[in-house]
Amino acid sequence: MKIGARVLKTGLAISLSIMLSILLLPNSTGVFAGIAAITTTMPSVRKSYEMLIKRFNANFIGGVVAVIALYTIGPGPVTTGIAAIITIAILNYLKLADVLTLSVITVVAVMVNDSNIYYITALTRVFDTLIGVVVSFAVNWLIYPPHYDEKFYENLTTTTAEILTLIRAELRNNISFTILNQDLIKARKSLKESRTLFELIRGEMIPRKANRQVIARKYVVYKHMVLATEQAVKLTDAFHQYDHVFKNFDQDLRLLIRERVETLLTAHEQILMKFEGRIYVDQVNFMTTSRDYRKNYISHFFQQALVELDIEDTSQIDVNGIIHIMSAIYTYEEEIHTLNRLIKSYLHRYNISNGVIEKPHDGITNV
Asked: Residue 205 in contact with residue 49, Cβ under 8 Å?
């Protein structure tokens, strides 16, 4: 059984919310504050802040609807249902559907209360809920706030290394079709986790503005790291899907492709090492090719496509597969170049020797 920081913070937020509710609000049991605390402790501080604002607005609307319904129609089961419907409709219109549960609970609690001073009951319930969401946000922000940089980078680099290994094995025909298919499924799952962690990183909330720009640029680098790995996965998919096509290429073209892809794979590895400070910032320039090289490279691809077209029993899919492989290689190459340029600019601009270890969490940024 594993108890993480978020679980402990949720328990702490519940306890503090209930105690504050009982202390500050007369006749309060702290139930609503505790429920609000449970539903507001989010994976990132920014998400907790956004949830705080949403829940306050939603519960205020619920309280107002309940009071109006009580004063105009009166209490009763039918009135409670009508008030709940109106509240849900308003929240859906305001795009607050993800927080309507607690708001409807507030409506019901106000409507079935025995007190004749309806607005006092509504205010009590709204403030009870507000205590829970504020305490939950404060606990998530001030006590061991979540930072996902290291976990994101470790997951992404591990996934990238596995994908690059798969491509090398596929180029040399050293891996079976079935095993490659299974490994690709695992790689996609791991890449999806990297995307989720990246979104959590972008959701982190930082109080100071001093280094907001450097953080924004760092997140742009992270974004393109994910895109580069995604393109590597797509390249692996292309070789995997059109494996029979690649094996029918003439030897010169296969060697040319292997040489070019190997260069890109090595560059990808070294670009990540550059970000870690293990390679000089201005290095990794060996990806650039001459015009003659590129002309020869592209000519080989189209010559192969024309050869396949001349064979009567060659399917259109096989011919298209040649172009798909070429397209995947070039798209991967473009993303590698972009990543290299961004990392070089980032490290030079801010004189950073290690882009991973340094984590200046002091700005609120969405990229």
From this structure: yes
Query: Using an 8 Å Cβ cutoff, are 334 and 235 in contact?
Result: no
The token pair at 358 is: 């340094």
CB atoms within 10 A of CB 212: 15
The C-alpha atoms of residue 157 and residue 226 are separated, in whole angstroms, by 10
Task: Quickly tell me which residue has 């997951």 as its tokens.
Answer: 155
- Give Cα 28 to chain centroid, integer Å: 39
Phi/psi for 31 (5° steps) reads -65, -50
How does residue 363 score in pLDDT terms, banded at 50, 70 and 90? very low
Place of tokens 């009166």: 74
Closest among 70, 74, 62 to 104, alpha carbons compared: 62
Is pLDDT of 234 > 90?
Answer: yes
- 266 falls in which pLDDT band (50, 70, 90)? very high
What is the rounded distance in angstroms from the CA atom of residue 226 to the CA atom of residue 357?
18
Residue 116 exposure: Cα atoms within 13 Å on the Cβ side:
0
- The string of DSSP letters for 313-345 reads T--HHHHHHHHHHHHHHHHHHHHHHHHHHHHHH
DSSP-assigned letters across all residues of 64-126: HHHHHHHHHT-SSHHHHHHHHHHHHHHHHHTT-GGGHHHHHHHHHHHHT---S-HHHHHHHHH
Tell me the C-alpha distance between 58 and 68, whole Å.
Answer: 16
Annotate 221-247 with b (16+ C-beta within 10 A) or e (fewer).
bbbbbbebbbbbbebbbbbbbbeebbe
> pLDDT of 21-57, one tens digit each?
888 877 777 777 787 777 766 666 667 777 778 877 8
Determine the residue type at 58: A
Which residues, in sequence order, are CB contacts of 19 under 8 Å at separation 6+?
30
User: What angle, 0 to 180 degrees and rounded to 10, lies between the N-to-C axes of helices 31-40 and 118-142?
Assistant: 40
The SS3 call for residue 221 is helix
Higher pLDDT, 255 or 351: 255
